[in-house]
C-alpha cells in the first residue's frame, strides 16, 4: 500500500508548503503507456487531462529518439548541430504565413518571456495586455500577466488585463457583440498605456482561451482586436502551449482555427512529449529585433536531445494521423457528452481533443464550483483523471493524450453519466 500521507509530508518538508497537486488525496503515478497511467498500488487510470504526453505516454518512437541522441551527444547550444536546423525547418514549415524563424527554449514560460521581450524590442515600449483570467507562465515578467496570484506589490502599471471572452456570460452582454467589445477593451487599454507613457508593445492571447475556460468563439473573433493591435504598432503573441500541435483537430494551430495571423507564436508542453522543450516562432524582422536587443542565449534550449524528442513527436503526429484522430474522436466525444441530461449542465463545448462541460446551479448561471470539484474527485475514484477550469472552476476540462479513441471516449462519458446519476444535483 503506498503511503500518500508520507509522500505529502516529505514534499512539504523538502519543497515547502503550497506546491500544487491534483485531488484531495493526490495520486502517485509510477508508470504510463498510451492514454493510461498506473499508480503505486497498481490501479489503472484513463488519462483524460494530460497534454504533455501529446502522442501518448512513453511513446516508443519518442523514447528511442531521446535515448539514441542521448547516447550520441548532448551538449549546450553554442556548437553547430544540425538537429536544431532540421527541426526548425520542419516546424516553421507548419505555419501558413511568414513565421520563418525560431528561438528554442525549455518551457512555455520561457517562450512567453522571450515573446514579451520581442514585443519590447520591436516597439521600444513596455505596455503588455492579456486577459483578466489567464495563465501564461511563471517567470518574473510573464507572471505579471498570469492572474492566479497577483505579483507582490500588485500588477505593474505597464500591464493591462481585459475581460476574458465567455460563452455563457459574454463580454459586452451578447455573443454577437463580444468580438467588438473585446477589441474595444483592448483599444481602451492601449490608449491608457500610451497616455501613461508606457506605450504599447504586445497583446498575449491563447487562441483557444484555454485557461479562460475555452469559450465557444466563431472564426474571425479576434479580427477586430488584431486590427486594433496592428494600428497601434504592437505585436500579437499567440500562446499555443495548449491548443498547438493539432490538439483542436480541425487545424494544427489554434490561431488557424480563429483565422488570424499572429506575429509571434509560443510553444511548450506537448512539443517534446514530456521532454522539457519549448519554442518561440516569429517573423524574421521580429526575431532580428529581439536578437539585436537582447543577445539572448539559452544553455539547454534546442540542445540535440530536445530537438530529437521534438522531431520524433512530429513524426508520430504524422504517421499515426493524430490530428485527424483528434478531430474524429473529439466530435464523437462532444456528441456523446451532448446527450447527457443533467439539470446543472449549462454547456458542452470544445474542439478536437480539448473539450468539457460547464455546470451551473440555477437560471442565473451561478457557477457550480463545488459540484464540479465533487465530480472530478468521483471520476478519479472510478479511474478517470480529468480536472476543472474557468473563472470559477466550474467547467470540466478534458484534454487527453492524442491517441485517445472512441472506446476511451465511451469509457469517459459512461463513467461521467454514472457519476452524475449518483451525485445529488
Ligand atoms: N502558457 C499557457 C497557456 C499555459 O497553460 C502554461 C502552463 N500551464 C504556460 C504557458 C507555461 O508553461 P510552462 O509550465 O511549461 O512554463
TrEMBL record:
Keywords: Aminotransferase, Pyridoxal phosphate, Transferase. One of its GO terms (molecular function) is transaminase activity. It comes from the Bacteria. CDD domains: OAT_like. Its cofactor is pyridoxal 5'-phosphate. Gene3D superfamilies: Aspartate Aminotransferase, domain 1, Type I PLP-dependent aspartate aminotransferase-like (Major domain). Belongs to the class-III pyridoxal-phosphate-dependent aminotransferase family. This is Aspartate aminotransferase family protein. It comes from Acidimangrovimonas pyrenivorans.
Amino acid at each position: 500500500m503506498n503511503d500518500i500521507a508520507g509522500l505529502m509530508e516529505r514534499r512539504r518538508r523538502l519543497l515547502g508548503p503550497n506546491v500544487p497537486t491534483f485531488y484531495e488525496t493526490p495520486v502517485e503515478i509510477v508508470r504510463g503507456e498510451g492514454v493510461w497511467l498506473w499508480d503505486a498500488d497498481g490501479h489503472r487510470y484513463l488519462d483524460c487531462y494530460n497534454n504533455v504526453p501529446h502522442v501518448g505516454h512513453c511513446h516508443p518512437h519518442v523514447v528511442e529518439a531521446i535515448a539514441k541522441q542521448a547516447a550520441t551527444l548532448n551538449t549546450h547550444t553554442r556548437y553547430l548541430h544540425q538537429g536544431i536546423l532540421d527541426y526548425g525547418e520542419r516546424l516553421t514549415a507548419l505555419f501558413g504565413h511568414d513565421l520563418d524563424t525560431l528561438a528554442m527554449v525549455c518551457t512555455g514560460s520561457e517562450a512567453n518571456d522571450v515573446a514579451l521581450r520581442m514585443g519590447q524590442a520591436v516597439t521600444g515600449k513596455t505596455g503588455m495586455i492579456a486577459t483578466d483570467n489567464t495563465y501564461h507562465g511563471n517567470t518574473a515578467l510573464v507572471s505579471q500577466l498570469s492572474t492566479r496570484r497577483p505579483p507582490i506589490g500588485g500588477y505593474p502599471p505597464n500591464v493591462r488585463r481585459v475581460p476574458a471572452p465567455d460563452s455563457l456570460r459574454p463580454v459586452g452582454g451578447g455573443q454577437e457583440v463580444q468580438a467588438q467589445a473585446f477589441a474595444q477593451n483592448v483599444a481602451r487599454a492601449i490608449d491608457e498605456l500610451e497616455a501613461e507613457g508606457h506605450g504599447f508593445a504586445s497583446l498575449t492571447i491563447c487562441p483557444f482561451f484555454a485557461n479562460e475556460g475555452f469559450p465557444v468563439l466563431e472564426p474571425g473573433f479576434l479580427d477586430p482586436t488584431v486590427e486594433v493591435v496592428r494600428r497601434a504598432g504592437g505585436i500579437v503573441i499567440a500562446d499555443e502551449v495548449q491548443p498547438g500541435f493539432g490538439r483542436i483537430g480541425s487545424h494544427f494551430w489554434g490561431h488557424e482555427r480563429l483565422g488570424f495571423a499572429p506575429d509571434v507564436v509560443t510553444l511548450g508542453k506537448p512539443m517534446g512529449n514530456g521532454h522539457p522543450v519549448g519554442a518561440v516562432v516569429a517573423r524574421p524582422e521580429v526575431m532580428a529585433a529581439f536578437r539585436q536587443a537582447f543577445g539572448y542565449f539559452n544553455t539547454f534550449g534546442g540542445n540535440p536531445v530536445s530537438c530529437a524528442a521534438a522531431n520524433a513527436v512530429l513524426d508520430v503526429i504524422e504517421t499515426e494521423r493524430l490530428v485527424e484522430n483528434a478531430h474524429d474522436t473529439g466530435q464523437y466525444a462532444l456528441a456523446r457528452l451532448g446527450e447527457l441530461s443533467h439539470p446543472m449542465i449549462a454547456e458542452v463545448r470544445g474542439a478536437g481533443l480539448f473539450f468539457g462541460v460547464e455546470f451551473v446551479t440555477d437560471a442565473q448561471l451561478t457557477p457550480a464550483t463545488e459540484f464540479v470539484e465533487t465530480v472530478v474527485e468521483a471520476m478519479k475514484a472510478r479511474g478517470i483523471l480529468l480536472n476543472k477550469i474557468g473563472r470559477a472552476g466550474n467547467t470540466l476540462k478534458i484534454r487527453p493524450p492524442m491517441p485517445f479513441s472512441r472506446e476511451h471516449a465511451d469509457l469517459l462519458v459512461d463513467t461521467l453519466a454514472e457519476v452524475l446519476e449518483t451525485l445529488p444535483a
